[in-house]
What we know:
By secondary structure, this protein is of the alpha/beta class. Helix content is 43%, strand content 15%.
Amino acid sequence: MLGVSEFRQMKRSGQAISMVTVYDAAFARMAEAAGIDMLLVGDSAANVMLGLDRTAAITMEAMCLFTNAVKRGAPNSYIVCDMPFGSDAEPKIAVQNAERLIEAGANAVKIEGLPLNSLKALREKEIDIIGHLGLLPQTAKSFKQVGKSEEEAEKIFAEAKILDSLLPCAIVLEHIPSELGKKISQAINTPTIGIGAGKETNGQVLVMHDILKMHPFKLPPFAKNFANFWEAGVNAFSDYKKWTSEK
Ligand code: KIV
């Protein structure tokens, strides 16, 4: 199974890491067939699957359910699951919750920010972790780019160095300037996976609803469509509706 040393080796050999979010068996199966390196059961499920307005609203129960479905659809993939907001606040609780997500099918858990004691407790239990720095949707007041001022950039850089020393499998860098994404990627041994962090990170992650254009909403500035499932879906449902009225 993949782990910290394999992901570090991928970084050393210059192999790009692809990560996409998936939340159910059908799309997990599709991502596995495409050979995606890491499937992320993101807490963005709150928005794209449950129609909630903030990721912090998702529960452990929901994340376990989504992770379980993803595992059934993609039994051979490396699955990362977000720790929901608050589930990692205390070291003991963080370990219990991470163990539940692993039991549900995750290989590693992703944690936003730097709850140091919880991160250390997870590593002591040999639970694989993925860091998440830069814009932190669970607690962010706005969704603007972060790390633009020298002070903010230095803080994120220092956090990345601390996380690196805890041996995570990867660190997601969200919505930061490209130069900062590059600087962090060059300074640490852990592979970085960017979402709006430029092209010099060691991998990229996007939300599957943006990749496939599954909604009619405006994309975040760093996201990209690679298909138009919205149009295909509306057309297919319309054709089906016509077909139901045909005698
Ligand atoms: O939940 C999520 O989709 C994420 C990505 C933005 C990396 O954390």
